[in-house]
TrEMBL record:
The keyword DNA-binding does not apply. Residues 6-159 form the Outer membrane protein beta-barrel domain. Coiled coil: none annotated. It comes from Hallella mizrahii. This is Outer membrane beta-barrel protein. Keywords: Signal.
């Protein structure tokens, strides 16, 4: 019984410390890796993406994000892509689950540009007081070529809450 009570106490402390990281005025720096055949698009080719993010909590549980990244598209006719974007995340109080929305401007080799809004749901798993591992599911909608470039997938990232 003592072990169960101790475990519940430690769990409650981790929940309290996690929610303290989502306060107004905090800053965020992160990076993520996507692709590795953990996504699906109509093109169906191998892809690998990396992106960096920086954010600011303008209100409790609400973060504004800026991001930039690179996507290797395998044998896709339009080649590799770079993107810049803005987004926001809402952290559900005291548990680390977040909901996100973003808009990216993708620039593919061969002068093909696409505006891609997206959504994601993920979890910020704290490995210490300020560093997280952040797995998430995402969907990016292509306006120029929905059948080939819209993507649903899984990405894994890490974040530092300052």
């Amino acid at each position: 019984m003592k072990k169960i009570l101790l475990l519940l106490f430690v769990f409650s402390l981790s929940v309290v410390s996690a929610s303290a990281q989502f306060e107004e005025g905090k800053k965020y720096v992160g990076a993520s890796l996507s692709g590795l055949d953990m996504n699906y698009s109509g093109n169906g080719k191998f892809s690998l993406g990396v992106e960096g993010k920086a954010g600011y909590f303008f209100s409790d549980n609400l973060m504004l994000l800026g991001e930039a990244g690179y996507d290797h598209q395998g044998n896709r006719d339009n080649g590799d892509a770079v993107h810049v974007g803005v987004g926001a995340r809402y952290y559900i109080t005291q548990n680390g689950i977040f909901l996100g929305a973003n808009c990216k401007l993708m620039h593919f080799d061969h002068n093909y540009n696409d505006f891609m809004p997206g959504v994601e749901v993920g979890y910020a798993f704290f490995i210490n007081h300020s560093v997280t591992i952040e797995p998430s599911l995402y969907y990016q909608q292509s306006f120029k070529n929905h059948s080939d470039f819209s993507t649903i997938g899984f990405k894994v990232g890490f974040g530092i809450y300052l």
